[in-house]
Amino acid sequence: MSAGLEVADIFRRHGEAYRRAHDGHLGRVERRVMSAIELCRTAALGGHAERCADCGLIRIAYNSCRNRHCPKCQGAARTAWLADRQAELLPVPYFHVVFTVPAPVAEIAFQNKATVYAIMFKAAAETLRTIAADPKHLGAELGVVAVLHSWGQNLHHHPHLHCVVPGGGPSLDRTRWIACRPGFFLPVRVLSRLFRRLFLDTLHAAFERGELRFFGGLAELAEPRAFAQRLRELRRVEWVVYAKPPFGGPEQVLAYLGRYTHRVAIANTRLVSLTERRVGFRWRDYRHHGKAKLMTLDADEFIRRFLLHSLPDGFHRIRHYGFLANGQRAGMLALCRTLLALASPLEPPAPAPDHRGAHRRMTGAFELCPCCGGAMISLATLPCAAPRRPSFWHDSS
Question: Taking a C-beta distance cutoff of 8 angstroms, is the pair 289, 3 a contact?
Fold first, then answer.
Protein backbone atom coordinates (compact mmCIF):
# COMPACT_ATOMS: atom_id res chain seq x y z
CA MET A 1 0.00 0.00 0.00
CA SER A 2 2.78 2.40 -0.94
CA ALA A 3 0.70 4.73 -3.14
CA GLY A 4 0.13 7.97 -1.25
CA LEU A 5 1.39 6.57 2.05
CA GLU A 6 2.15 9.28 4.62
CA VAL A 7 3.58 9.59 8.10
CA ALA A 8 0.10 10.83 9.03
CA ASP A 9 -1.33 7.42 8.08
CA ILE A 10 1.10 5.71 10.45
CA PHE A 11 0.23 8.05 13.31
CA ARG A 12 -3.52 7.71 12.70
CA ARG A 13 -3.30 3.94 12.63
CA HIS A 14 -0.79 3.33 15.43
CA GLY A 15 -0.50 6.62 17.30
CA GLU A 16 -3.12 5.99 19.97
CA ALA A 17 -1.58 2.62 20.88
CA TYR A 18 1.83 4.30 21.05
CA ARG A 19 0.51 7.00 23.38
CA ARG A 20 -1.01 4.38 25.68
CA ALA A 21 2.15 2.27 25.74
CA HIS A 22 4.43 5.25 26.47
CA ASP A 23 2.08 7.44 28.47
CA GLY A 24 4.53 8.07 31.30
CA HIS A 25 7.47 8.91 29.04
CA LEU A 26 5.93 10.91 26.20
CA GLY A 27 6.60 14.64 26.49
CA ARG A 28 4.34 17.56 25.62
CA VAL A 29 6.29 18.42 22.45
CA GLU A 30 6.11 14.85 21.14
CA ARG A 31 2.37 14.62 21.84
CA ARG A 32 1.81 17.89 20.03
CA VAL A 33 3.82 16.74 17.00
CA MET A 34 1.79 13.55 16.77
CA SER A 35 -1.52 15.39 17.09
CA ALA A 36 -0.53 18.00 14.50
CA ILE A 37 0.46 15.42 11.89
CA GLU A 38 -2.65 13.32 12.53
CA LEU A 39 -5.00 16.30 12.05
CA CYS A 40 -3.15 17.98 9.18
CA ARG A 41 -5.40 18.65 6.17
CA THR A 42 -8.45 17.04 7.77
CA ALA A 43 -11.85 18.45 8.63
CA ALA A 44 -10.66 18.90 12.23
CA LEU A 45 -8.70 22.00 11.19
CA GLY A 46 -11.34 23.46 8.89
CA GLY A 47 -10.76 24.66 5.36
CA HIS A 48 -12.75 25.97 2.43
CA ALA A 49 -14.69 24.86 -0.62
CA GLU A 50 -13.68 26.15 -4.03
CA ARG A 51 -14.86 25.90 -7.63
CA CYS A 52 -13.01 26.17 -10.95
CA ALA A 53 -14.24 29.14 -12.97
CA ASP A 54 -13.70 27.23 -16.24
CA CYS A 55 -14.65 23.58 -15.83
CA GLY A 56 -16.79 23.85 -12.70
CA LEU A 57 -14.78 21.38 -10.62
CA ILE A 58 -15.65 21.69 -6.93
CA ARG A 59 -13.19 20.54 -4.30
CA ILE A 60 -12.65 20.78 -0.56
CA ALA A 61 -9.27 22.03 0.69
CA TYR A 62 -8.54 21.47 4.37
CA ASN A 63 -6.09 23.56 6.38
CA SER A 64 -2.53 22.50 7.13
CA CYS A 65 -1.19 22.15 10.66
CA ARG A 66 1.94 24.22 9.84
CA ASN A 67 3.96 22.21 12.34
CA ARG A 68 7.63 22.21 11.32
CA HIS A 69 7.89 18.44 11.90
CA CYS A 70 5.08 17.64 9.46
CA PRO A 71 6.28 16.27 6.09
CA LYS A 72 3.33 17.87 4.25
CA CYS A 73 3.78 21.40 5.57
CA GLN A 74 7.32 22.26 4.50
CA GLY A 75 6.82 23.05 0.81
CA ALA A 76 5.27 26.51 1.19
CA ALA A 77 7.64 27.48 4.02
CA ARG A 78 10.61 26.39 1.91
CA THR A 79 9.39 28.36 -1.12
CA ALA A 80 8.97 31.57 0.88
CA TRP A 81 12.33 31.18 2.61
CA LEU A 82 14.17 30.55 -0.67
CA ALA A 83 12.53 33.58 -2.30
CA ASP A 84 14.05 35.72 0.46
CA ARG A 85 17.46 34.11 -0.03
CA GLN A 86 17.51 34.50 -3.82
CA ALA A 87 18.23 38.23 -3.71
CA GLU A 88 21.06 37.65 -1.21
CA LEU A 89 23.21 35.41 -3.40
CA LEU A 90 26.63 36.66 -4.44
CA PRO A 91 28.41 35.77 -7.73
CA VAL A 92 31.02 33.60 -6.00
CA PRO A 93 31.45 29.86 -5.42
CA TYR A 94 29.55 28.48 -2.43
CA PHE A 95 30.80 25.64 -0.24
CA HIS A 96 28.94 23.09 1.85
CA VAL A 97 30.64 22.23 5.16
CA VAL A 98 29.28 19.56 7.53
CA PHE A 99 30.08 19.43 11.25
CA THR A 100 29.40 16.16 13.06
CA VAL A 101 29.85 15.06 16.67
CA PRO A 102 30.91 11.67 18.09
CA ALA A 103 28.24 9.26 19.38
CA PRO A 104 28.94 10.00 23.09
CA VAL A 105 28.22 13.68 22.41
CA ALA A 106 25.03 12.77 20.56
CA GLU A 107 23.88 10.88 23.67
CA ILE A 108 24.40 13.99 25.81
CA ALA A 109 22.71 16.13 23.17
CA PHE A 110 19.59 13.96 23.16
CA GLN A 111 19.06 14.54 26.88
CA ASN A 112 19.87 18.27 26.58
CA LYS A 113 18.64 19.23 23.12
CA ALA A 114 18.26 23.00 23.42
CA THR A 115 21.57 23.50 25.24
CA VAL A 116 23.79 21.16 23.22
CA TYR A 117 22.30 21.95 19.81
CA ALA A 118 22.89 25.65 20.54
CA ILE A 119 26.50 24.86 21.45
CA MET A 120 26.91 23.07 18.11
CA PHE A 121 25.75 26.16 16.24
CA LYS A 122 27.97 28.50 18.23
CA ALA A 123 31.08 26.32 17.98
CA ALA A 124 30.68 25.67 14.22
CA ALA A 125 30.10 29.35 13.39
CA GLU A 126 33.01 30.50 15.55
CA THR A 127 35.25 27.85 14.01
CA LEU A 128 34.52 28.95 10.45
CA ARG A 129 34.89 32.65 11.22
CA THR A 130 38.10 32.21 13.26
CA ILE A 131 39.91 30.09 10.68
CA ALA A 132 38.72 32.31 7.81
CA ALA A 133 39.95 35.44 9.62
CA ASP A 134 43.45 33.97 9.99
CA PRO A 135 45.66 35.48 7.23
CA LYS A 136 47.39 32.11 6.89
CA HIS A 137 44.16 30.66 5.55
CA LEU A 138 42.01 33.47 4.13
CA GLY A 139 42.10 36.68 6.16
CA ALA A 140 38.45 37.55 5.53
CA GLU A 141 35.04 37.79 7.16
CA LEU A 142 32.64 34.97 6.27
CA GLY A 143 28.89 34.63 5.94
CA VAL A 144 27.31 31.36 7.09
CA VAL A 145 23.87 29.74 6.79
CA ALA A 146 23.75 26.80 9.22
CA VAL A 147 20.99 24.17 9.37
CA LEU A 148 20.60 21.54 12.09
CA HIS A 149 19.70 17.96 11.19
CA SER A 150 19.34 15.44 13.98
CA TRP A 151 18.75 12.29 11.95
CA GLY A 152 20.49 9.75 9.80
CA GLN A 153 18.86 7.86 6.92
CA ASN A 154 17.76 5.09 9.30
CA LEU A 155 16.10 7.66 11.62
CA HIS A 156 18.57 7.12 14.47
CA HIS A 157 19.67 10.19 16.41
CA HIS A 158 22.63 11.70 14.54
CA PRO A 159 22.93 15.46 15.15
CA HIS A 160 25.02 17.40 12.64
CA LEU A 161 25.15 20.83 11.03
CA HIS A 162 25.02 21.67 7.33
CA CYS A 163 26.70 25.01 6.62
CA VAL A 164 26.48 26.78 3.26
CA VAL A 165 29.21 29.41 2.98
CA PRO A 166 30.21 31.86 0.21
CA GLY A 167 33.76 31.19 -0.97
CA GLY A 168 35.29 34.39 0.31
CA GLY A 169 34.45 37.62 2.08
CA PRO A 170 35.46 41.19 2.87
CA SER A 171 38.99 41.70 4.18
CA LEU A 172 39.20 42.38 7.91
CA ASP A 173 39.52 46.11 7.21
CA ARG A 174 36.61 45.82 4.74
CA THR A 175 38.48 47.45 1.87
CA ARG A 176 38.60 44.55 -0.59
CA TRP A 177 37.08 41.16 -1.38
CA ILE A 178 39.25 38.12 -0.64
CA ALA A 179 38.30 34.97 -2.53
CA CYS A 180 39.10 31.38 -1.67
CA ARG A 181 41.51 29.46 -3.82
CA PRO A 182 39.72 27.78 -6.76
CA GLY A 183 38.03 24.60 -5.58
CA PHE A 184 39.35 24.89 -2.01
CA PHE A 185 37.69 26.42 1.02
CA LEU A 186 39.46 25.92 4.36
CA PRO A 187 41.55 23.00 5.72
CA VAL A 188 39.07 20.56 7.25
CA ARG A 189 41.59 19.10 9.70
CA VAL A 190 42.15 22.56 11.17
CA LEU A 191 38.39 23.14 11.28
CA SER A 192 37.86 19.81 13.03
CA ARG A 193 40.43 20.46 15.75
CA LEU A 194 39.14 23.94 16.56
CA PHE A 195 35.50 22.82 16.46
CA ARG A 196 36.28 20.04 18.93
CA ARG A 197 38.04 22.42 21.33
CA LEU A 198 35.42 25.15 21.17
CA PHE A 199 32.55 22.71 21.55
CA LEU A 200 34.02 20.86 24.54
CA ASP A 201 35.09 24.07 26.29
CA THR A 202 31.57 25.47 25.92
CA LEU A 203 30.00 22.17 26.98
CA HIS A 204 32.16 22.15 30.12
CA ALA A 205 31.09 25.73 30.89
CA ALA A 206 27.44 24.70 30.55
CA PHE A 207 28.05 21.82 32.97
CA GLU A 208 29.65 24.19 35.48
CA ARG A 209 26.60 26.45 35.28
CA GLY A 210 24.30 23.52 35.97
CA GLU A 211 22.65 23.67 32.54
CA LEU A 212 23.01 19.96 31.73
CA ARG A 213 20.82 17.13 32.98
CA PHE A 214 21.64 13.42 32.88
CA PHE A 215 19.46 10.40 33.46
CA GLY A 216 19.25 6.71 32.59
CA GLY A 217 22.51 5.34 31.25
CA LEU A 218 24.17 8.77 31.48
CA ALA A 219 23.23 9.47 35.12
CA GLU A 220 26.82 9.02 36.29
CA LEU A 221 27.91 12.03 34.21
CA ALA A 222 26.21 14.30 36.72
CA GLU A 223 29.25 13.68 38.92
CA PRO A 224 32.00 16.23 38.04
CA ARG A 225 34.85 13.73 37.92
CA ALA A 226 32.95 11.39 35.60
CA PHE A 227 32.00 14.28 33.33
CA ALA A 228 35.60 15.54 33.23
CA GLN A 229 36.77 12.04 32.30
CA ARG A 230 34.23 11.90 29.47
CA LEU A 231 35.54 15.22 28.13
CA ARG A 232 39.12 13.94 28.24
CA GLU A 233 38.08 10.92 26.20
CA LEU A 234 36.31 13.11 23.66
CA ARG A 235 39.38 15.32 23.24
CA ARG A 236 41.38 12.27 22.13
CA VAL A 237 39.11 11.18 19.26
CA GLU A 238 38.88 12.71 15.79
CA TRP A 239 35.76 14.74 15.06
CA VAL A 240 34.52 14.53 11.49
CA VAL A 241 34.23 17.81 9.58
CA TYR A 242 34.16 17.73 5.80
CA ALA A 243 33.70 20.18 2.95
CA LYS A 244 32.10 19.25 -0.36
CA PRO A 245 33.19 20.67 -3.74
CA PRO A 246 31.85 24.15 -4.56
CA PHE A 247 28.47 24.56 -6.22
CA GLY A 248 28.29 25.31 -9.91
CA GLY A 249 26.17 28.46 -9.62
CA PRO A 250 23.52 30.35 -7.68
CA GLU A 251 20.69 28.14 -8.97
CA GLN A 252 22.44 25.10 -7.53
CA VAL A 253 22.93 26.90 -4.22
CA LEU A 254 19.20 27.60 -3.98
CA ALA A 255 18.29 24.05 -4.98
CA TYR A 256 20.68 22.67 -2.40
CA LEU A 257 19.43 24.97 0.35
CA GLY A 258 15.89 23.95 -0.52
CA ARG A 259 16.73 20.31 0.06
CA TYR A 260 18.24 20.95 3.48
CA THR A 261 16.58 23.90 5.20
CA HIS A 262 13.05 22.58 5.60
CA ARG A 263 13.64 18.85 5.60
CA VAL A 264 12.05 16.64 8.25
CA ALA A 265 13.29 13.30 9.59
CA ILE A 266 11.69 11.34 6.75
CA ALA A 267 9.78 12.41 3.64
CA ASN A 268 6.52 10.72 2.75
CA THR A 269 8.04 9.68 -0.57
CA ARG A 270 10.41 7.30 1.22
CA LEU A 271 7.57 5.30 2.81
CA VAL A 272 6.90 1.96 1.13
CA SER A 273 4.48 -0.09 3.23
CA LEU A 274 2.22 -0.02 6.30
CA THR A 275 0.62 -3.09 7.87
CA GLU A 276 -1.05 -3.91 11.18
CA ARG A 277 2.36 -4.05 12.83
CA ARG A 278 5.13 -2.91 10.50
CA VAL A 279 6.35 0.10 8.52
CA GLY A 280 8.70 -0.18 5.54
CA PHE A 281 10.77 2.67 4.11
CA ARG A 282 13.68 3.28 1.75
CA TRP A 283 17.04 4.47 3.03
CA ARG A 284 20.61 4.89 1.82
CA ASP A 285 23.46 3.18 3.59
CA TYR A 286 26.34 5.66 3.31
CA ARG A 287 28.70 3.17 4.93
CA HIS A 288 28.26 1.16 1.74
CA HIS A 289 28.61 3.98 -0.81
CA GLY A 290 25.02 5.19 -0.46
CA LYS A 291 23.48 1.88 -1.51
CA ALA A 292 19.68 2.03 -1.55
CA LYS A 293 18.08 -0.39 0.92
CA LEU A 294 14.69 -1.21 2.43
CA MET A 295 14.17 -1.10 6.19
CA THR A 296 11.13 -2.55 7.97
CA LEU A 297 10.40 -1.60 11.58
CA ASP A 298 7.65 -2.28 14.07
CA ALA A 299 5.25 0.67 13.95
CA ASP A 300 6.05 1.42 17.59
CA GLU A 301 9.77 1.66 16.79
CA PHE A 302 9.17 3.77 13.69
CA ILE A 303 7.17 6.30 15.73
CA ARG A 304 9.80 6.29 18.47
CA ARG A 305 12.57 7.05 15.97
CA PHE A 306 10.53 9.77 14.26
CA LEU A 307 9.85 11.51 17.57
CA LEU A 308 13.55 11.44 18.50
CA HIS A 309 13.87 14.47 16.23
CA SER A 310 11.22 16.69 17.81
CA LEU A 311 12.79 20.05 18.59
CA PRO A 312 12.18 22.08 21.76
CA ASP A 313 9.64 24.88 21.53
CA GLY A 314 11.10 28.04 20.03
CA PHE A 315 14.37 26.44 18.96
CA HIS A 316 15.63 27.84 15.63
CA ARG A 317 17.13 25.16 13.41
CA ILE A 318 18.22 27.62 10.68
CA ARG A 319 20.70 30.30 11.77
CA HIS A 320 22.80 32.98 10.04
CA TYR A 321 26.24 34.22 11.04
CA GLY A 322 28.97 36.62 9.95
CA PHE A 323 28.04 39.00 7.18
CA LEU A 324 24.78 37.04 6.75
CA ALA A 325 23.70 37.57 10.37
CA ASN A 326 20.21 39.01 10.64
CA GLY A 327 21.17 42.28 12.29
CA GLN A 328 23.68 43.36 9.64
CA ARG A 329 22.85 41.33 6.54
CA ALA A 330 21.54 44.11 4.29
CA GLY A 331 24.44 46.48 4.93
CA MET A 332 27.11 43.80 4.68
CA LEU A 333 25.70 42.36 1.45
CA ALA A 334 25.76 45.86 -0.03
CA LEU A 335 29.41 46.15 0.99
CA CYS A 336 30.17 42.75 -0.51
CA ARG A 337 28.61 43.72 -3.82
CA THR A 338 30.53 46.96 -3.84
CA LEU A 339 33.77 45.11 -3.21
CA LEU A 340 32.88 42.67 -5.96
CA ALA A 341 32.35 45.64 -8.27
CA LEU A 342 28.68 44.86 -8.76
CA ALA A 343 26.06 47.55 -9.23
CA SER A 344 23.12 45.34 -8.29
CA PRO A 345 22.36 41.88 -6.89
CA LEU A 346 23.13 38.87 -9.06
CA GLU A 347 19.43 38.11 -9.31
CA PRO A 348 16.59 40.66 -9.15
CA PRO A 349 14.76 40.67 -5.83
CA ALA A 350 11.83 38.29 -5.67
CA PRO A 351 8.45 39.99 -6.06
CA ALA A 352 6.48 40.69 -2.93
CA PRO A 353 4.66 37.52 -1.93
CA ASP A 354 0.94 37.18 -2.62
CA HIS A 355 -0.28 36.47 0.89
CA ARG A 356 -3.57 35.08 -0.39
CA GLY A 357 -1.69 32.65 -2.59
CA ALA A 358 0.66 31.76 0.25
CA HIS A 359 -2.35 31.08 2.47
CA ARG A 360 -3.85 28.85 -0.17
CA ARG A 361 -0.61 26.91 -0.50
CA MET A 362 -0.44 26.49 3.27
CA THR A 363 -4.00 25.16 3.34
CA GLY A 364 -3.27 22.65 0.60
CA ALA A 365 -5.42 24.41 -2.01
CA PHE A 366 -4.46 24.72 -5.67
CA GLU A 367 -4.18 28.20 -7.12
CA LEU A 368 -5.04 26.63 -10.48
CA CYS A 369 -7.55 23.92 -11.23
CA PRO A 370 -5.85 20.48 -11.17
CA CYS A 371 -8.02 19.39 -14.11
CA CYS A 372 -7.98 22.26 -16.61
CA GLY A 373 -5.65 24.90 -15.14
CA GLY A 374 -8.43 27.43 -14.63
CA ALA A 375 -8.67 29.78 -11.66
CA MET A 376 -10.14 28.33 -8.46
CA ILE A 377 -12.71 30.56 -6.76
CA SER A 378 -13.38 30.24 -3.05
CA LEU A 379 -17.03 29.38 -2.31
CA ALA A 380 -17.22 29.01 1.47
CA THR A 381 -15.12 28.71 4.60
CA LEU A 382 -15.42 25.46 6.53
CA PRO A 383 -15.11 25.83 10.32
CA CYS A 384 -12.85 23.62 12.39
CA ALA A 385 -14.45 20.37 13.46
CA ALA A 386 -12.31 20.53 16.62
CA PRO A 387 -13.83 22.56 19.49
CA ARG A 388 -10.90 25.01 19.48
CA ARG A 389 -7.76 25.74 17.48
CA PRO A 390 -5.07 23.22 18.49
CA SER A 391 -2.10 24.45 20.51
CA PHE A 392 0.33 23.35 17.81
CA TRP A 393 -1.11 25.82 15.25
CA HIS A 394 1.97 28.05 15.27
CA ASP A 395 5.40 26.43 15.35
CA SER A 396 8.89 27.94 15.26
CA SER A 397 11.23 27.41 12.31
Answer: no
